[in-house]
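[step 3/7] fold_predict: job queued, chain A
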Amino acid sequence: MKYNLPLIAIFLFVAACTTQPKSEVENVTGEFLFYDNAAILNTGSEIYGVVVDDKMRELHHQALTVQKDSFDMVQVYIKGVISENPNKEGWPQVVTVKEIDSVAPSVPLSNQMIEIRTE
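[step 4/7] structure written:
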């Protein structure tokens, strides 16, 4: 029995190291758009697909109140879980909305210059 104890200890150590890490809820801010049964979230540095579920539909319903048209992205502040996309199509990572903090119209980019010429 004394020879099996180290073997059991090594087995338990390896099993503990290979378990999947728990998904953590993160604060996520970005521009959200739901169109044609697909949703995306653009954070400025990353673009995520958004899992279409009841919470995402609630987010879309709130976004409709500030959207100018169906292609207008809105600024959202959510808590969600970011994970690898299980589907082959779409973005490599997806976010599952867990909590909606706020929804606001997107702020126009101030660093873009528009030149209007009249001739």
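[step 5/7] annotate
Confidence is low (pLDDT under 50) at residues 14-21.
The longest strand covers residues 93-105.
exit 0
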